[in-house]
Every structure is written in C-alpha cells, then in structure tokens.
Amino acid sequence: MNQMTDIKPLIQDGSMNPTAPIKLLKMKDFESNQDVRWCPGCGDYAVLAQIQKLLPTLGIPRENFAFISGIGCSSRFPYYMETYGMHSIHGRAPAIASGLKIARPELSVWVVTGDGDSLAIGGNHFIHAIRRNIGLKVILLNNRIYGLTKGQCSPTSEFGKKTKTTPLGSIDSPFSPVSLALGAGATFVARTIDNDYPHMQQTLRRAAEHKGTAVVEVLQNCVVFNDGAYETLTDKSTRAETRLLLEHGKPLLYGTEGKRGIRMRSLAPELVTVGENGVTEADLVVHDEHAANGGLAFFLSQFAAPLPVPLGVFRAVEAPAYETLNSQLAANTRQQRGQGTLEKLFNSGDTWTINP
After folding, report:
1. What are the residue ranges spanned by the domains of the chain?
2. pTM higher than 0.70 for the full model?
3. Cα distances (Å, whole numbers) of residue 181 to 8, 47, 187, 297, 312
4. Which of 90, 126, 146, 270 could join 71 in a cystine, given CB atoms 3.0 to 4.6 angstroms apart?
5. Cα 350 from Cα 356, distance rounded (Å)
C-alpha cells in the first residue's frame, strides 16, 4: 500500500499470538489514566488531543509507539499517552529517542519538546538528530517563554521581551525553529498553530507518514506567562491578514479576499495585490515543498511582519533514513565477516603484551 492511511487501525490483543483477533483502535485507547495537569486553557491540551486522535488511524499497533520527552510543560506528554514512553532529562530527548529508533527501527518514535528544552540546552541534540535524518517525529511546542519555571526568557522570545530574567527587555535575537531545522538539513519541516485543529491534524499526519526526521513547530499559547503571544494569528478579525497557508504547487496568496500575494524582487519578498498595477497570480512565488535545495523553504521561514506568518509544510523531500542505512550496514558487515565472537573482538586490531 502506498499510503499509511489505507491501513485500517488495529491492534493485537496483547497475547503475543499472531492469530489473535484484532480490534479497532480508538482515541480513548491512547488516553492514559493520569490526570492531565496543565493550566486551564493551555494549548498543550489541543496538541495532546490531536495526536491521540491521529494515532489510531495510522495502522500501527499501540505497542509500537513510544513518546520521549525532556523537561518542560510539554514534556509531561508521555504520562498522558497510553503507549511506551520516557520522561527523560533536559534537552536530551532527541538523543534518547535516537538510540531507541536505531535499536528498534520498527517503532514509531515521537519526541515532544518545547522551545527551551530543544533550542537551549538541547540545541546540539536537536540539530544532530535532524542532520542524521533519524526517523523521529519531533513535535516542538513553541510558546516563546519558559513556562514550567515560571516565565523566563526563552530562545524564541522576541527581541525586547520583558520577562523575569530580562526585566529591561531581551537583547537576544530569537531563533526561528523552522529556520534552524532547515539549516540542519531537515527533510520534513512544518508549522501549525494550537487552535486550528483541522490544520494541526493534517500537519501531524504528514509528519507521521514521513520517512526520516519530521519536525513540526506548534505555535502554542501559554495562558499564564505569555498569553496572547500569537493573538493576531488566532483572532478571527486578523488571522486572514497575518497567516499564509502553504500549499504545494500553489501561489503564495493570503488575505480576507485571497488577493494578497508574495512575489520576488531582487531576491527579496514583496507584498502585492492581485489585480492591482497589472499584478496577476503568474507573478507570485509558487510553493514547492519538494525542492531539492531547500532555499525556498528557508526563504519562507524568514518571513517577519509586515509579511504574513507561513503555516503548513515548508519542506518534504525523500532521503534515506539513518536507521535504514544503519541496518543495511550491519547486515553487510555480518555477511562479509560472518558470526563474530568475543574472543575475536578482544583480540582484533592492535594488541599489546604487558610484562609484569
């Protein structure tokens, strides 16, 4: 089958009997018995619900899912998933998840992280998991603040942001998670927002079906320490003029009437209106998520006001996944050298005899 969605959701009865009857999985099968303890109104609830809704449709046995997290509000995720998982240490979730995926390539391994966890102390692990194209699904919840530790400046906080650690305003330039992932060579990068459930569901599905590292940035509101961080993107009165929904093969159009667009002028984006000054849709940039060099995707990731914020899939290209190459390498080695022994291992390479 070409599409994972063609497979009906199923799971064995847990008896290890391959002929055991199967039952259809439902969203509730992925809900643990733990009380979900995020602040009322937190965007994390929406992400949790959409992932629990998605997983039973992927045709993967429940025992083949694993959720790994680091430290932060988002990192409570494994407690709430009725799957295998691990609440690991600060910033190291990609490293732990990488080891799991390489050892058990048949598993669907998800990393749930935040902007502080993955882009500060965990930045090195984040970019190298991407560089290797390990088959992880990395869901990065970006609320532009440290929520768990009560409101400090994060790597994605805006320039001039006043927080408990930057009372006079931050003088750091913020990271763009999408730009960082693309710069590390990501084969799949997308962005969605916590209050647009259909868009989030579609984006998460695309990530789940991708072979290799899939990074999804979720613009997520922290109601306590950074409420309204994405208000212009979520408010019905402004979102049409501030969001650019990316569609492969379609021109970059947005706005209330769908007439505002982006064209290139001297390698710089220019806002135009179709129908004015002779501008037609043929003048606009056409989105190509499959472009080999990733230049267009990076160009879009750099959009800042007054340009709209792109949402959707920036890049989706095929490349060999690390765990596949690793398995092939191991198989070739076994074929060439045969079955090894500890004695051969200990006496291989350079050896020295130490006189007493």
Report:
1. 23-229+320-346
2. yes
3. 32, 20, 9, 11, 15
4. 90
5. 20
